[in-house]
Amino acid sequence: MRTPDSITAEAILPLVGGPANVVSVAHCMTRLRLGLRDRSLVQEAALRALPAVLGVVADDATYQIVLGPGTVARVTPEFEALLTAAPAGAPGVLATATPGPPADSTAERLAARGAELKADRLRRNSTPVRIMLRRIADIFVPLIPALIGCGVVAGLNGLLVNLGWLPGVTPALTAIASGFMALIPVFVGYNTAKEFGGTPVLGGAVAAVVVYAGVAGVTVSGTALSPGQGGVLGALAAALLGTYVEKRIRGRVPDALDVLVTPTLTVLITGLVTLYGLMYAAGELATAIGTAANWLLDHTGALAGLVLGGLFLPLVMLGLHQALIPIHTTLIEQQGYTVLLPILAMAGAGQVGAALAVYVRLRHDTSLRTTIRSALPAGLLGVGEPLIYGVSLPLGRPFVTACAGGAAGGAFVGFFSMLGDKVGSTAIGPSGWALFPLLNGSRGPALAAAVYAGGLLTGYVVGFAATYFYGLAGLSVARARVEP
Fold first, then answer.
1. Which of 116, 125, 249, 471 is the most buried (most CB within 10 A)?
2. Torsion 341-346-352-355 (CA) sign
């Protein structure tokens, strides 16, 4: 029986070149990530026109189709089933896409301009540092569903503890919420080895040293180690070293001895270096990150929020926001929540405000208003790419005024941090309205939610006002740039 999700998968497959063009399939929280042999076979305009598609993002490694939370998790197995069922060399499953806007519409021209901007970004992003950041992001992105699930359970458990309700249940909820976080270095090690070409289970094995309770009996420079010291940073470093050691050994060991010698020496050498060097160094770095984040918000909260909220959209556009994922995870390990994510989420609020201003001002531009209506729900939930590449960035000034809205919202949240009312997220991944169930802070989840809501409202209002009064002044110039 065909379902809406199977219909969506059937519609997508021929538009990305059919089964023969698909090399790999994966998904994160919102995107179907495809490895394609030939991207020139992608029919991007028709793909964007599909009702379930919120946008597309192409980077060096994958072609990403934004479907939104929940939908992507249901569509991916349907898509994989089509690939499995398709005969070798099959061109694709026939499907008819919903017609898109007329070829000469503003929305179509803006979409083309957005595609040009993305292509230019890809060319500039192909540097070793940015490629490395994307690979690090690929290590942590698969962990996000578990982080969200455990974060929501932790928030619910905290609420029950504060209210004094269900005292017989809260210890069980604590175990459920904390189990994954206690072992997250193992998952990081596994994914690191997998991403960098090592044996995943060996990456998990060397990273497990970091969280093993028995390390308390190991003394380095007269100081006993602590289980979990160094956290995900130590696990990441250990797995990277383990992958390097494994490859070097495997290239020098006879095939007959490989199965015995290679894993033994990999675990032994990497484990010793981890215990007597990496755990201490990573622990010091993790402590410095937490101290710096707290100092920054305690002493320069409003200014820090202004800068972080204002610059996050450009960071997303450049792909540099991926460097923040290990920092978020480290802060969650240390403090139970990351104080950076709620501030960075204000960038999405500024983007939504800017899109609303464009929608109100351009009342007679039906095609562009249709694009905004379809992308706005995703924007409210923190999926900003459809609005960035379909509306604000190709128009020019609205992207800048959206950043202004994000800066204002970030300054609002940062100001309350200076007053001692820190707002944090117990997990990474969601943004916008989807972040509310994950909020916590120095004075409890209720106040954290109130401050966060105030920041969102500030971002909406400033993004709207800045775009309405200033962001559309050069619209005629922007349109001239996207005219065919």
1. 471
2. negative
Structure tokens at 153: 């359970």
Whole-angstrom distance, CA of residue 459 vs CA of residue 349:
5
Q: What is the pLDDT of residues 172-210, one digit of tens each?
A: 999 998 898 889 999 999 999 998 989 999 999 999 999
Judged by DSSP in three states, 99 sits in: coil
Angle between helices 106-125 and 475-482 (to 10 degrees): 80
Residue 79: burial class (beta carbons within 10 Å; 0-12, 13-18, 19+)? buried
Residue 41 near residue 17, CB atoms below 8 Å: yes
Q: How far is CA 482 from CA 108, 471, 478, in A?
A: 9, 17, 7
| Residue 328 contacts residue 290 (beta carbons within 8 Å) | no
Contact 302, 309 (CB under 8 A): no
Query: Residue 269 to residues 166, 209, 240: CA-CA distances in angstroms?
Result: 48, 12, 13
Q: 266-297: per-residue pLDDT in tens?
A: 999 999 999 999 999 999 999 999 999 989 99
CA distance 296 to 331: 14
Spatial contact of 422 and 297, defined as CB atoms under 8 Å apart: yes
Question: For residue 184, what are the CA distances in angstroms to 73, 140, 234, 280?
Answer: 22, 10, 11, 18
Is pLDDT of 125 > 70? Answer: no
Phi-psi region of 122 (alpha: psi -120 to 50; beta: other; left: phi over 0): alpha
Alpha helices (H) along 212-278: 231-250, 255-273
Q: How far apart are CA 377 and CA 384, in angstroms?
A: 10
Q: 155 vs 176, 181, 185, 326, 345, CA distance in Å?
A: 12, 14, 22, 21, 19
Task: Report yes or no: 243 and 197 within 8 Å, Cβ to Cβ.
Answer: yes
Cβ pair 11, 95 in contact under 8 A:
yes
Catalytic residues: 28
CA distance 443 to 449: 11
CA distances from 72 to 8, 31, 375 (A): 10, 6, 16
pTM confidence score: 0.74
Count CB-CB contacts under 10 A for residue 314: 16
In whole angstroms, give the CA distance from residue 100 to residue 226: 58
How many Cα atoms within 13 Å fall on the side-chain side of residue 255?
0
Among 357, 316, 344, CA closest to 462 = 357
- First and final C-alpha spacing in the chain: 43
pLDDT digits (tens, 9 = 90+) for 461-479: 999 999 999 988 755 434 4
Alpha helices, DSSP H, located in 165-253: 170-195, 200-211, 231-250
